[in-house]
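Data card: per-record layout.
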Amino acid sequence: MSSTRQNPGKVVEVNLSNQEIKEIQLSEQRVKDFLGGRGWNIYNLLKNLEASTNPLSPENLIIFTAGVLTGSEVYSSSRLHISSVSPLTGYLGSSNVGGYFGARLMQNGIFSLIVRGQADNPVYIWIEKGKVEIRKADDIWGEQTNVARERIAEQTNSNGDVGIIGPAGENQVVMACIVFDDGHAAGRTGMGAVMGSKKLKAVGAAKGTRTVGEGLKRSTAREYLNKIQSHSNYEEWAQFGDSTSVKWTDDLGAGTVKNYRQVQSDDIEKADGRSFKDLPRTPSTCFRCPVHCKAELEFTRGPHKGKKAERPSYEPLVALGPKCGNFDALETINLHNKCNNLGLDSVEVGGLIAFAMDLYERDKLTAEEAGGLDLSWGNREAMNELIDMIAYKEGWLGKTLSKGLKEAAEEIGGDAEDYAYHVKGLAMTAMDPRGFKGSALGYAIGSRGGDFTSIYARPEYSFSPKQAEEVFGSADAANRLTEKGKPELVKRSAIVSAVVDSLGICKIPLLSLVEDYELSLTAQLASDVLREAIRPMELLKAGKRIVTAERLFNLMRGLTVDDDSLPKKFTSERIVAGPSEGSVVDLGSMLTDYYSLMGWNTEGVPTEDTLRNLGLKELIERQPIT
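The structure for this 626-residue chain is written out next.
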């Protein structure tokens, strides 16, 4: 390693039980092996936690780590990764978020903030001029995230960037999220509940003075920006974000209408992002992002006229929209913002409400069990009330759903599990896996459960057959309706996604627009900023090390090969009509090939040779997998 390599900053550990704040020795070799963000976090979870750690106990850690490029001159280097044991799934808790907090950490000279223990009374952590403080939060405990943000700004006399939990996190609702910078939610896997269990209301940082990563060459920066802005979808991303993907999925015959009952709807245009293009829009952005895919909208029509709200992305628009039989996009926007204020993951909540509505429509959930709510498809008043019930654990149904899809289905009993569409306890996202075979495999093997973003198997529908042949060795990898070529595509996508989450770059410009799945431009960006020649193959090896380490963590937590599965609907029922007609997922052959490509045995356990080659033996020797 070059002695001139950019130092990523300090590692600070905060123990809330005894109020101790200390710096931890930063190993340069570990940074090289695991990069930052997602990789650094999984190394520390494996190193420090026991197999039996209760997610909501003081012994659990929650780690906030910037990528090694976060806050640098690289465009869209905004990302922060948050990791813990998930109270929702029991496996890896993992969330990646944009905004400005990650950059503010690095500007304050802090690369990673590790929080352990439990405070006696509510607190928040404040970082300014490189100093970390624990401050009292009694007066903001119980407040929704929008109100608490204003209070902290007043107390700190600062426009710093803050990640806050709402009542859902305080109540340890297992799908609670952390909301940063007015709408950037660190969602999925319940990181807000972990903060709530520690009585930690917020983490915040003022703008710092440290300069991060000045080595980026103008030619490299210009090449990256040109590739972003010259992509055919750039203007649409800049105007709508990914909100127009609601209709796109439906057009392909692979939507999630009424809890996956239908793959298409005649009403889909009312739910899509183009349906509210007339609303006044104020674009917003993350640190150094040229895409500006976030926006604040003003309601100029409908029952919420006069209000302002964050524009949801594709996943919440589907989860609280067509998945629940709701095709009023304006109401979906309002429901999503309600979730943000309560500190609830709107994707998970949409899956829960759709599940409850499905059972209600099938007469498997009575009106009494529903607490008097009319849970007919698309009933927005009932959705609005049920969101409150989940956040505050009110009524039998609110308490039951607050435990997550898997546990709720088990508690309801009967055949309720047949309609609870999750993988490893995490609600599946907006694409029916029968219409996207690469995403189907990604749902099954994802380290945090059934989601898209930790795998990002986008090339199955964005690459040409020629591109797929060159990168994945199979033209079929670009055919979303065949299993052929998907194990190699998903292997590369998982590894690349881990690298990008660890470098701290947003996937939208790098993978959705530039589509750098070979990491050639990414390696040049890293080389410039870190002042060390880094080859794509080195990044790919680091990514494989990170994905394998996450696998080891989940195995330690009790994961078995049976957990790498999909709900039986998607492996046994064919799509009956539309562009994806006849499609069903044959998962078995894809899993076997994926395990082999990753160097794992037929039970999905990394082999001794793989562990040795990736330098993971010492972690395994500390916590052996049997």
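Known properties of this structure: The first strand starts at residue 10 and ends at 15. The mean pLDDT is 96.

See the next section for split statistics.
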